[in-house]
Structures are given as C-alpha cells and as structure tokens.
Design brief:
The complex is a heterodimer.
Chain A (H helix, E strand, L loop, with lengths): L16 H15 L75 E3 L5 E3 H18 L5 E14 L10 H4 L3 H4 L4 E7 L6 H5 L2 H18 L2 H4 L7 E9 L2 E8 L6 E10 L10 E9 L2 E9 L7 H14 L1 E3 L1 H11 L11 E3 L5 E7 L10 H9 L4 H5 L2 H7 L42 E7 L5 E8 L10 E12 L1 H21 L4 E3 L3 E8 L3 E10 L5 E6 L12 E4 L2 E4 L4 E9 L2 H8 L6 E8 L4 E11 L7 H4 L13 H7 L12 H14 L12 H13 L8 H13 L21 H11 L2 H18 L2 H4 L3 H12 L11 H20 L4
Parallel strand pairs in A: 3-4, 9-12, 17-24
Antiparallel strand pairs in A: 1-2, 3-15, 4-6, 5-6, 7-8, 8-9, 10-11, 12-13, 14-15, 16-18, 18-22, 19-21, 19-23, 20-22, 23-24
Helix pairs in contact in A: 17-19, 18-19, 19-23, 21-24, 23-24
Chain B lengths: L4 E11 L5 H10 L11 E10 L3 E10 L10 H4 L4 E7 L3 H17 L5 E7 L11 H11 L2 E4 L8 H11 L6 H8 L14
Parallel strand pairs in B: 1-3, 1-4, 4-5, 5-6
Antiparallel strand pairs in B: 2-3
Organism (chain A): Cyclotella atomus
Subcellular location (chain A): Cytoplasmic vesicle, Phagosome membrane; Early endosome membrane
Keywords (chain A): Cytoplasmic vesicle, Endosome
Chain lengths: 828, 196
C-alpha cells in the first residue's frame, strides 16, 4: 500500500514501485548481478511466522568474477548473531545463555500449585502483538528511499590538508548528495601504549577529522549557501584509533531520535582499545540504523582472531538507550525478543546494520605473496576474491553470519607505500601480500530494504590503506501512526476474540424455575440442562453467596452441585424443593419464602443466576395447636403474610377454639365411622388417601369416603408433626411412679399443662377412652393406645441434650404409665 | 524491569437494569453493538487490553446483573475490584438516582482505593435526555469520581472512559512482588525440647 502523502524532497523517493525497478536495473548494470533480492514493500498481509526475513540468495554468475555464491549459508560456529529462529545473542559473552523473559521474583503460585508469572505472560503476549503488527507494517508504513553513504579508512595516523571530497563526495555527481553520511576511521592515532591508555590524542584527532569531514560535506560548492543543503553532525564516537561519525542532511534532523553510541575494546588483554569497535545507533524516521566501525586483529595468518574479534564486538556492543527508546524499538519491531528489564539494545536489534572498517582479512596464504602482488597490480581479481579470507570465512558461516557484502570490483586496498599509488615493496619494508582489509558489510532485517548503489575505493594516498566507500539505497520506514493504531486495534480484536473464546461457555435451557404451589411433605424436582457450548472444558459448580455458607435455602436440594463438561457435552442438574416439618414451620411463620437465587459458576468464566420460586401451599401439618385454634377458616385460606393475617383474625384467646378444628374433624370422622373398626390404629393407610385427607383438612373440603386406617394415620401424623408437641418436655414426670403416687402425679401433670394443650390432651384421651369401649371389636388395648399416644403426643427429640439415655427411657416409661392411668381410670 | 508495566485490573460494571452495562462492555471488548441486548442474568466475564502510552492494561471485566432482585449479589463482584463503572441512562432519571446509590454503596463497602467512574450512557438519545449533564458532573466532582457521557451505540467516549480509568489506576508493577517480599513465608521455628 502506498500512501500519497507529502514526501521529503530530499529523500530519493519513488512514487511507485516502478522507481524501484529502475534502481534495480541500475544496480544490475553496475554490479553485474542479476538476482538481487527483490525489495518488497508490498508484501501480502500475513501472520508472521517469525521468519520475516531470509538472507538473499546470491546467484553465482559464472562470467563474473565478482560475485560469490551463498546459496545456503551454513550456520553454526561460535556466535549466531542474528536469526529470528535462534535466540539472538545479545548482551552476553557466549550467546548461549538465552534470554530470561521475566524474573523469578514475579512467579506466583496458583491455588492448584501451578506457577504463574504475569510479567512473563504479558511480555510474551505483547511480543506476539508487536510481531503481528510488524508483519503488517506495509499497511501503515510509508516507505521512503534514503541514501546512506558509508566510508572507511585506516589513516595510519596520517592526515593533514588533503581534500576528502574525492572519497566522501565521489558519487555525488551521479547520485546526488546522500541523506546520511557515516565515516569511520582506524588508526587515527598511532596504536602505541600511551595513546591506548590516554585519550587526549584520540580526542584531538577525532575533532580534526570531524571538522574536516564537515567542511568537505558543507563546502560552499556543495551547499551553495543553502543551510538546508548542509549536513548536521549527529554523533561522534572514538576509541583510541577508531572513530565513527554520523551526519544527516539538515532537513532530516528533526526525524532523528534516540542517538546512542557504544564502544568495545578487544585488543590487548581482550579489552584494550587498540582493536575493537566504535558504534553509533539511531532512529531515522521510523527505521533503526546501527553503524559499527571496527579494527579487527591483524596478521595474515590470524583469521580466527579476526573472527573472534567480530563476535566479541557484535555481542558486547550495547546501547543504553533507556526504557522509552527500547519501547519504541519494540514497537518498531526491530527487537525480536526481550530480555528481562532491558533498557539497552544490541547490534542485531536494528532494521539495518552497517559494519565497516579495517577488518584485516587477507588473501589466503595458499597463494604466495608475490603472486598476490602480481595479480593485484594487474587488476586480475578473480582468484584473489575466491581466496579472500573474509569470503571464505563467511561462506563457511564462521563470521558475519547473515551479513551481506557487495562484490569487490576494486583492487586490494592494502598495503600501499604512503604518498604513492604503489603497493609497498620497498626493500627495507616487510613484503606483504596486498589485501582487501577495508570492507563494508550490512545486515538488514528486511533484505529488500537495502540496495548497494556502489562499492568503491578512493585513491587518496597519504596512508598505507586506500579509503573505501559505498552508497546504499535504504528503504526507510515512516509510520503513519493513525494507521498503525488501526492495525493494532484489529490485532487486539483478533486476540481478544481468541482469549475470550478460550473462556468456558455453557448454555442453560432455562434459568428460571417456577415450582408453582408446593405442598407440605411433597418433593418437586425441576431439571436444568447445561450444555458446554464453548471450545474448552467447562467446570461448573454452585457457589454460596457472599458471606453465606450454603448453596441454597434449606428447602432446596441441588444435584449435582458441581461437574465438568467437555465441549458439546451436556448434563442435567436437578433442583428439588421438599418441605418438611422444619421448613414448613419457617414457611408458615413467613420467616421464609420459596424464593432463591442459586449461583452457578463456570471456573474461569461467568456466573449464571438460577432463580427458583414457588408458593407454599399451607398445611395444618407442621403448625402448632396454639396457632391452629386461632383460625376458623381452612388453613389454606389463611394468608402467609403476617400483616394480612392480623387484619383478618382476632388473636385474643377468647375468640379461639377449644381444639383445632382439623383435629376435631378427623377425630369426629373416625368416631362416626370407624371407632369400632377391627385393628384400628394398627393397619397402615394408603399414602394417596393420606394426602387427600390432608388436603381436605387444609382446604376445608368435606371428606370423601376415605378408609378408616388412612384417617387414623392422618390423626397420628397430624399430632406427631405439630411444630411443638402437645406434651411439653417441662411437664414430664421425672420421679418413679407407683400405685401410691400416680394420682398426685397425674394431677400435677394436668395442672402444669398449658391451657390449649390441656384441652387437646383431654380431648384426645377422651376419644381414646371412647375407642377402648369398643375394644372387643377393634382389638385395641389401653397399653397399645398409651404407646401410640406417647409416640405422637410427646416428641422423641425433646429433652435436654445432656440428659442420659437412661433417664430418657425412665421418663418415657413414666409417661406411658401416666397415659395408661388416664385411659383406664376416670381421673379426667 | 521498569521498561514496561504489566497491569491486570478487576473492573466491575454496576447500575440499574437496562442502562446499557453489557452494551458498553461489548462495545469496549468486541466493538459491536446490539440493539436488543438480553438482560444479564448472572455476571458476565470478559477481558480487554488497552494500550496506554507507557503500559498495557488488561481489564478483567465483570458485567453484573442490573435487576433489583440480584442487587444483593453485587458485592461478590465489586469486592476486590480495582475499578467500578457505575452506569446510568441519561434518559432515565431513576437510573441516575440508582447510580448515586451504587456510588454510595461502593464508597461504603467497596475497596478503599477503588476507582469509580460514572457513565451516563445512551448519550445518542439527546432528544430524550432527562438527566442534566452538569448536574451529574457536579455530583461526580463532589465525589471525586470520573464522569463521562457515553454511547455504546455510536461508540462515543467508550474507549475514552476505560482509558481514563486506566490512567487513574495505580502502577502496580511492583505491588505484588513487593508484598511478597515484605512478608516472606519463613519455616516455623521448631522449639528445642529436651526429652531426656
């Protein structure tokens, strides 16, 4: 995508892809190369796989001695400086330690014993986000073409008044002045012990060279008096004999950020600056550029030393650019992975790295010195290029891994007799094989973003080295922030969809359960089907409400209360309301209503509320005689709401009935129809009839022709399910009863009874005495009735908890004797 | 490790029924809007990440049920929440009264440092406005809380609201770790006993 927005006039800016092709053609002609990696600013949108850049494949051109085939660069060797699939060896000496994404201090142990590190999780997640955004950078980036000039010269501590324009401005006539000028020097001072230790001389010489470069670039002839055509010094870094300095054209100055320098000494003792690297990095528009000027180990045979020096400089160079700048680097996608707590970037964390200097690689020793000299002088370079140590080492992956270098089209740059254009052959000097010591290489994250326009040497002759220079066409990124924001939003939306999809999801076929009218002693079950509609395993469980200990009210049971479902699986959860004595009492007194919300929680997901409701159909069962005597209406018609109830009924004792009408109705019915029935109170009733009879009592409906055993059972159930028993525990006789004292005990017992209970008690005993009159036919005995009475009039659960089993037994015995006494005698 | 803040915050949405809590969340998280959003029966959980200048803030959002009958369950969700969005409907004065009572409840029973934001939703229905912006704003200022009028329907101010909350949330980069280090769990000392 190309955006038609204002282009900087000073940038070599193609308006379309066509210009790109033109520049390629130009390159192909200049360099006699055919298969440059195609610059690809219009890459299709794709999810990044991490392999966003592959090294370009150089095709060997047999007719040309100038290109080298690197079809498959072998990897391996000590440092693997840059690869998106291998861990970049940043800021570490060995490169094998790996990057720790987050400190262990951030580890948290979860409840289930797993270790979670939110910092790590966030960083990894962010890294993914930035990778996605970078993969789509074409959508929000305006690509501009900038020209970068790189010059390098080992000046052998020389340098005075000679003009540098034949070196620095050599191609200006052809390409125009570049946007960025980077110049590196080696041996700007003698590498003697004093200069290595004290930097005065280095500083002095660096000033000299910087001024000289500046005056060359900004000569009246070049600038024509226009300040906008002049170059601004951005940064200078020196280390003993090394100097690197960066200049940009004035209009670009506002778009340069985060300029930082670094130097690494790898010379004497492995740390001194007689050998090493001086580097400058910066952000140019939205591309990150890094310039490394090095002087590597000397001597023809010391190839391994040069390789090691390279690795050391590469790994040790670290730019302390601070949090903010690192964040920007990450956002620009120039950093593949993050180290924990990093506020620095390394060489490989840049869009483009230029590496130049006196790399000191020579022609392989297999070619005799004399032959190297001869071929060099005759400009027969093919054999020398093939035997160039740097080419050999790179082809074998031992140094400058993933870097690129243009074809050598110029004669070896070393060693010249200073002041001449002759290779050093004076008899008093050591005879050296000429070599391409002075080189310029580059490393681009997007290989198509760097194209070399030329790779030349200058014929300046004050030093024993010739200066080398190269101009590059570099694709510079200029991010349109609003568009990047849009891409960011899209990426985040995608991610959020997945993250939220990984939350468990279920569907419930209903969330409101209406149980309708629920009666006493009735169990009603309603199921809910829960189905896992998500993409992950769903665990569900009912949870208590805040500050509660139970999942639901006492009249409700839920099964199961927890479970797990794989995607697509479903199960039923049963919600059952059952009203027993305890709950009916609460419901009767309106301390409780049949309404509840049960919380079903998905582990790591949402909560569902299941609303349960029903209305309690009141029953005389589970109430107290004290309350029942107050109501003249059937209990079902008595409102549950205490206020409405108070309006309807007069609660003073005078209005109350002697015994509950329900008790009277059932006893009367038995009395009328079955008092003489055989095995009365011995044969069980039918559950269906028991239910119907209770309904009749509750609603006031008249009895149908119910069987006597069912009615007898209802009587017993009514009495035993009263919320408080007829015979309170307080009036239990506790002393031994015998024939002498039973009269007084009986009297005392009756006196202690509360009035309503007294009435009921007398009423029931009278009824049973009536029943006993028919003992011939109903086969009942006073003892049996006494036993029945004791079980339904006296609550078995009554009695203080600290009472011993023995005393309970004794009291029951006493109570039974007393009952027998009431039934057999005329004491009432 | 100061170079990037990693922040997770629990955020809860409160407010009367049908004021648009779920719509706000769906707009914020999925950038969608449904004219007929079913009432939330329960509490929906969603996450959304917001990039600020210097941090990425991940919200863990609990969207609660607004119906009165579920009100007593709300504390389950606002307890421990770092931020709360109290939503009202600018066309419904009762919902504004409701919002005030939610704010009171949060101030009384929520976490001490909870960041409260009041959102006057349905701002697209200007013609039916019943709640004066200035009145709501004065209330918010008096209570030191964020106030914005939002429209889940046309997305107005939705992201801004969450960004504003994110800005007011504490930088908790060191929080958790700091606490852990302040109260190290040490093995209990065995008391020396002489047994012979």
């Amino acid at each position: 995508m190309k955006f038609q927005i204002e282009l900087s006039p000073l940038l070599y800016s193609p308006l379309s892809g066509t210009s790109y092709k033109l520049s390629q053609l130009l390159l192909a002609n200049m360099n006699n190369q055919q298969n440059w990696a195609t610059p690809a600013p219009n890459q299709p949108r794709r999810l990044s796989t991490g392999e966003s850049s592959n090294p370009p494949t150089y095709s060997r051109n047999d007719s040309s001695a100038s290109s080298i085939s690197y079809a498959q660069q072998p990897r391996g060797g000590a440092p693997a400086p840059r690869s998106s699939s291998l861990t970049p060896a940043r800021n570490s000496n060995s490169g094998n330690e790996g990057i720790i994404v987050a400190n262990r201090a951030g580890d948290e142990e979860t409840e289930d014993g797993r270790i979670r590190n939110r910092e790590a999780a966030t960083k990894i997640r962010d890294a993914w986000i930035y990778k996605q955004i970078r993969a789509r950078q074409d959508e929000f980036t305006q690509y501009k073409q900038g020209r970068v000039f790189i010059g390098t010269w080992n000046v052998n501590a020389k340098g005075k008044d000679e003009s540098l324009s034949s070196w620095l401005c050599a191609d200006w006539a052809q390409h125009g002045p570049p946007d960025v000028v980077v110049v590196g020097f080696q041996e700007m001072v003698d590498l003697n012990a004093v200069n290595v230790a004290v930097e005065n001389k280095s500083q002095q010489r660096s000033q000299f060279w910087v001024e000289k470069i500046k005056s060359t670039l900004n000569s009246r002839e070049n600038t024509m008096g226009d300040p906008m055509r002049s170059y601004t010094e951005l940064s200078v870094k020196y280390l003993v004999g090394l100097l690197v300095c960066v200049f940009v054209k004035a209009p670009h100055k506002p778009r340069v950020k985060h300029v930082s320098t670094a130097s690494v000494g790898v010379g004497v003792m492995g740390v001194m600056g007689n050998k090493g690297g001086a580097s400058i990095r910066l952000q140019f528009y939205d591309s990150t550029l890094c310039f490394v000027c090095t002087h590597l180990a000397a001597h023809r045979e010391n190839v391994a030393g040069r390789n090691a020096d390279f690795a050391n400089v590469f790994n040790k160079t670290s730019f302390e650019i601070g949090d903010e700048a690192v964040k920007e680097v990450i956002k620009l996608g120039s950093l593949n992975q993050w180290a924990a707590g990093t506020n620095s970037v390394g060489v490989s964390d840049h869009d483009v790295v230029f590496w130049f200097g006196d790399l000191n690689y020579r022609v392989d020793e297999s070619i005799p010195t004399e032959r190297v000299l001869e071929l060099s002088e005759k400009n027969l370079l093919e054999e020398l290029i093939e035997n160039d140590q740097l080419n050999i080492e790179r082809a074998n992956g031992r140094v400058f891994q993933d870097f690129e270098e243009g074809p050598l089209t110029f004669k070896p740059t070393y060693k010249y007799q200073p002041g001449t254009d002759l290779y050093e052959q004076r008899p008093d000097k050591k005879l050296r094989a000429p070599a391409w010591c002075d080189r310029i290489l580059w490393l681009a994250q997007e290989p198509g973003h760097v194209a070399q326009l030329n790779y030349l040497r200058s014929e300046l002759n004050v030093s024993d080295h010739k200066p080398v220079m190269s101009t590059f066409l570099v694709t510079i990124k200029d991010v349109i922030l609003s568009r990047r924001e849009e891409v960011y939003k899209e990426v985040m939306k995608l991610l959020n969809e997945f993250e939220n999809a990984s939350l468990p999801m279920v569907s419930l076929d209903r969330i409101n359960l209406d149980f309708g009218k629920v009666r006493y002693d009735q169990r009603v079950t309603l199921p809910i089907t829960i189905t896992n509609t998500g993409q992950v395993v769903a665990q569900f469980r009912m949870v208590p409400k805040l500050d509660e200990n139970t999942l639901c009210r006492p009249w409700m049971t839920v099964t199961p209360t927890y479970g797990m479902l794989i995607p697509g699986e479903s199960t039923e959860i049963e919600f059952t309301i059952g009203i027993d004595n305890t709950t009916s009492h609460l419901l009767n007194t309106s301390k409780e209503v049949l309404e509840d919300v049960i919380i079903l929680r998905l582990e790591n997901g949402r909560d569902y509320y299941i609303s349960v409701s029903g209305s309690y159909a009141r029953s005389c069962f589970g109430m107290s005689v004290d309350e029942l005597v107050l109501y003249s209406d059937p209990i079902r018609e008595v409102p549950l709401d205490p206020i409405l109830r108070a309006e309807k009924y007069d609660f003073n004792a005078k209005a109350a009935m002697c015994v509950p009408k329900e008790l009277w109705r059932i006893i009367d019915a038995i009395y009328e129809r079955g008092v003489a029935e055989r095995d009365l109170f011995s044969v069980p009733g039918s559950p269906d009839e028991v239910y119907q009879i209770r309904e009749c009592l509750d609603t006031g409906a008249s009895f149908e022709n119910f069987s006597v055993p069912s009615m007898a059972e209802v009587l017993i159930l009514f009495l035993s399910n009263l919320s408080t028993p007829i015979v309170p525990a307080a009036v239990f006789p506790t002393l031994d009863i015998d024939a002498q004292n039973i009269q007084s005990f009986a009297r005392k017992f009756l006196e202690d009874m509360p009035p309503i209970q007294y009435n009921v008690f007398i009423y029931i005993v009278s009824f049973f005495r009536e029943v006993l009159l028919h003992r011939e036919r109903n086969k009942l005995s006073p003892a049996k009735i006494a036993r029945i009475c004791c079980s339904c009039l006296v609550s078995s659960s009554q009695g203080s908890p600290d009472e011993s089993a023995g005393s309970v037994h004794q009291r029951k015995g006493n109570m039974q004797q007393l009952m027998l006494h009431f039934l057999e005698t005329n004491s009432i | 490790m100061s170079n990037n803040r990693f922040c997770h915050f629990k955020l809860v949405l409160l407010g009367d029924t049908a004021v648009g809590k779920s719509c706000l969340v769906v707009r914020f998280v999925r950038d969608e809007f449904f004219e007929f959003q079913e009432p939330t029966i329960g509490a929906a959980f969603l996450t959304q990440t917001l990039a600020l200048d210097d941090a990425t803030v991940k919200f863990e959002i609990w969207d609660t049920a607004g119906q009165e009958r579920y009100r007593s369950l709300a504390p389950m969700y606002y307890r421990g929440a770092a931020a709360a969005v109290v939503v009202y409907d600018i066309t419904n004065p009762d919902s504004f009264a409701g919002a005030k009572s939610w704010v009171k409840e949060l101030q009384r029973r929520g976490d001490q440092n909870v960041v409260i934001a009041m959102a006057g939703n349905k701002a697209d229905l200007e013609a039916h406005r019943k709640v004066d912006f200035n009145e709501a704003n004065e209330y918010a200022e008096a209570n030191g809380i964020i106030h914005m009028e939002t429209s889940a329907k046309n997305a107005n101010n939705v992201k801004a609201l969450f960004s504003e909350i994110a800005k007011r949330l504490p930088n908790n980069t060191q929080g958790g770790n700091g606490e852990r280090e302040a109260f190290p769990i040490l093995p209990q000392k065995q008391e020396a006993r002489n047994c012979c």
